[in-house]
Amino acid sequence: MELRPLGFGEIFDRAVTLYVRNLIPFATIVVVFVLPISILQYLLDLGSQPEFSAFVQILQHPARAHTQHVPTLFESPALVAIFVATLFFTYLLWPFALNAVAVGVAALYRNRPVLFRACYEIVLRRWLQIVGLILLDLVVALLWYVATVLLVVAIVVLAIVLGKVSAAQTLWFWFGFSGAIIVLILSIPLLGPLYVALTFSMYSVVIEERGVLESLSLGFTRVFNRAEFWRALLFAVAAAATVFGGSMIFGVLAIAAAFAHLPALQAIIEGVTRAVITPFAVVLLAVYYFDVRIRREGFDLEASLERLSSTNVG
Q1: Could you give the CA distance from residue 118 to residue 165 in angstroms, rounded to a whole number?
Q2: First to last CA, the chain
Q3: Does 158 map to a domain?
C-alpha cells in the first residue's frame, strides 16, 4: 500500500476500505476486549432490571413519581463491584486491543495479512510499557481535570473579589459566570486532541518500541503543534460523530431489548456493537497516526513499518 500524505477525506476512505476488507480479522482481535466486557455488562443489565422496570412504571403512571421506589445501582454492593470491574477491565484491556489492531493496520500497509497471534505477540512483548503508559495516561487525565476545575474556580473567585471592591457587582458576577462557562465549553473540544495524543503515545510504545515517557512526549508533540492541532480537533470531532452515529443504530435495538426485559439479548447486541464499531474506530485512529508520521518522518516511517511487519507473518 502506498505511503503518502492523505487528505482529510482520504483518511476516512482508507480506514473504511481497510476495515471492510479485513472485518473478520479485526473483529477477532477485539474479541479479547469485547467478550469479558460483554459478560460484565450482561450482569449489570440483569441486575438493573428492577431499576429499569420502576422507571417504565413512572413513565406509564406519572402520578407514582413521588411514591414509586426506584432501586439504584449503589443499593447493591454486588452491582457496584461489577460496575467497578467493568471500568477496570475496560481501561486495562482497551490499550492491548487498540495496539493489536494498529499492528494489523501496519501489516496491511506493507501488504501482509492481519494475523491474530502475530499481532498480539508484538503487543504482549511490550506489556510492561503499556501498563506503565496506562497509569501515566490516568495521571494526565487527572491533571487535565484538576487544571480545568482550578481555572474555573480562579475565574469565579476573581470575579467575587473584584465585585466586592467595585460598584459594578452585577457586571463582575456575569463576568465570572460567563468566564467559567466559556472555560468549560472550551475544555470539552480539547478532549478530542488530548485523546488522539494519548492514543498516539500508546502506538509509539508498541509500533515504535519507544519508552513510556518518550512515547508520551511524542504523542503530544505530534498533535499539539501549530500545523496539526486544528486538524486533530477536526478529526476527533468527525471520528466521534461517525462512531456515535453507527452506535446509535445498534443502541435502538439494545433499548428495545431492555424494554422487552431481555437482558441477554441486550448484552449480545451491545457486544456486537463493540465488535463492529471498536475495530473501525481503531483502524481510523491508526490510519490518522500513520498519516501524521508520514508527513513528519517520511522514509523513517517506511523503515519502521518494514521492521515491525517482518515479525507479523507466519
Answers
A1: 68
A2: 20
A3: yes
Residue 37 within any structural domain of the chain: yes
Q: Is the pLDDT of residue 191 over 80?
A: yes
**3-class state of residue 113 by DSSP:** coil
Closest CA to 40 of 80, 5, 94: 80
170-185 per-position pLDDT tens digit: 777 777 778 888 888 8
Please, are residues 69 and 271 in contact by the beta-carbon 8 Å criterion?
no
Q: Is the pLDDT of residue 289 over 90?
A: yes
Task: With respect to residue 254, please indicate whether it lies within any of the assigned structural domains.
Answer: yes
CA–CA gap between residue 50 and residue 208 (Å, rounded): 49
Would you call 246 helix, strand, or coil by DSSP?
helix
Burial class (CB in 10 A: 0-12, 13-18, 19+), 251: middle
- Residue 94, domain member (yes or no): yes
Could you tell me the residue range of the domain that residue 214 belongs to? Answer: 22-309
Task: Name the residue type at position 165.
Answer: V
Does residue 71 come out as left (phi exceeding 0), alpha (psi in the -120 to 50 range) or beta?
beta
Q: How many helices (H) and strands (E) does the chain have?
A: 11, 0
User: Which percentage of the chain shows pLDDT scores above 90?
Assistant: 32
Q: 158 to each of 67, 92, 147, 187, how far by Cα in Å?
A: 44, 40, 16, 20
Q: How many folded domains does the chain comprise?
A: 1
Name which of 171, 155, 153, 151 is nearest 163 in CA terms. Answer: 171
Provide Rg for the chain, Cα atoms.
23
Chain centroid, CA 168 distance in Å: 45
